Batch of 2 targets.
Target 1
Amino acid sequence: MKYVYLLQSISHPEQRYVGLTSHIENRLAAHNAGHSTHTAKFRPWTLVGYLAFSDESKAADFEKYLKSGSGRAFAGKRLW
């Protein structure tokens, strides 16, 4: 399974992040440990939600969509 996950910064609640992983718990721990340059300065993070996909390409497409302008608008209204 592939997971598209949504994170929100606890210290900076206006900061949000969308990612793709096979292991949500490990990936959240890596974000909170500062292993990602894009998210390190807004630690700690909390998991807001995730969507599971059995098809890896569909998961990657959905992650890409959520990172687009219309995808951010959708996520802001429906997922956060």
Target 2
Amino acid sequence: MTKIAFIFPGQGSQSVGMGAELFNSGGNFLERADEVLQFGLSRLITEGPQEELTLTYNAQPALLTVGAMIASRLVEEGITPDYTAGHSLGEYTALVASGVLSFEDGVSVVHKRGLFMNDAVPAGEGAMAAILGLDGEKLQEVTDSITAKGDAVQPANLNCPGQIVISGTKAGVEKACVELKEAGAKRAIPLDVSGPFHSSLMKPAAERLKNALDEVGMKDASIPVVANVNAKTVSDHEEIKQLLVEQLYSPVRWEDSVRELINLGVTHFIECGPGKVLSGLVKKIDRSVTVLPVYDEESLQAVIDAAKGWE
């Protein structure tokens, strides 16, 4: 029996023009986002520039807007998820798809989240990098050593076997990249993000985020969400709120989240958003599941056609 999970990408997936074809026939998501934020997010999404779109307080509402629109299009076609999950920022898009947050509240909260994160560590002072081909124990040992010497850096995204993202101060991440390659990592790739997400440096932003979430009308999930922090399903809105606060400074347990979804019987993962980053990660975690990214009209139609054969 087919069980479907909608999964939503996080920061780093943004690109100018993302979702352009789908927006033309996908309701008024751009207009609604502009109205909520009182600035031209739609212009940034469609025209850029990329540098401005990548700033965390722009990238977060932009990615949520694209992901929520794609999920809405799929549901209109009769393709509904049994579970949702999102990577970092993508968890908020999952919460919109699961009915916990309205689209408008989601856009507003993640814009504030981005501002809080930027204030905690201004753009350029923090960094993240993907470390390939090194086990988690050795990585933890190296990052702990660098942090103890005064340059904070720690594991941030536990993505898939052989890929862990580190996060921290610019100096800490740069030193870690050098030392981790010396310790046997195959590659260390700087990420196109504007801050040290999911690190202890984000704790000042977490309290402000809690206050912002307290002002939002959250509901219990109509579709269970697998949370980043503990890789478990959650539906209660108060528990979700607490996990979102913790998520800001805790590692994203993406590999564990995908394995949990598979344990729950998910056979088909549909990535809703620009690019195919999560699709690639899911395939590295378990090649037996079906993974389908939706990012334009052609890929949407491919999923619609494929779904006709699902039981």
